[in-house]
Amino acid sequence: MTQFGAGESVTRAPSAIAAALAAAGIAVLGGRLYSARAGLHGGRVYGLLPITSQYAEEVRQYELVSAGAVLASYLLLRSLDQQRPRAGWYVAYAVSMG
């Protein structure tokens, strides 16, 4: 990351971005599974949890894993919602699972 610098904010930014993406993904999942309002509240609660804030500040992979799990959950839900199953969603789910 030499082109962006080596400061503290640069090293912590990926975890903070992943936390925001996980909260947004939870909101989308809640919206698809129940209602837009429930999704919004779910994403907000996730973002306000103290452990989420702590992990978003750390330079570790906890939030990246959380965002990946939310992405995998969305892809699985999307693949199961199709009237005619499409291999693309299942492949994307398999790739996201690693």
Summarize the amount of helix as a percent range. over 70%
Terminal CA distance reads 24 Å
Rounded Rg: 15 Å
Instruction: Give start-end ranges of low-pLDDT stretches.
Output: none
Helix-strand category: mainly alpha
What is the general shape? flat
Strand segment tally? 0
Mean pLDDT: 89
Order of helices and strands: HHHHH
In DSSP terms, counting alpha (H) and pi (I) runs of 4 or more, how many helices?
5
Q: How can the largest sheet be summarized?
A: none
Share of residues in strands = under 5%
What this model shows, in words?
This protein is mostly helical and 98 residues long. It is built from five helices and no strands. The radius of gyration is 15 Å and the shape is flat. The protein starts with 7 loop residues before the first helix and ends with a helix.
Give a brief outline of the structure.
With 98 residues, this protein is an all-alpha fold. It is 80% helix and 0% strand.
Write the SSE topology.
Layout: H1 8-33, H2 36-48, H3 50-57, H4 62-81, H5 87-97
Helix pairs in contact: 1-2, 1-3, 1-4, 4-5
Question: What keywords describe this structure?
Answer:
5 helices; flat; mainly alpha; 98 residues
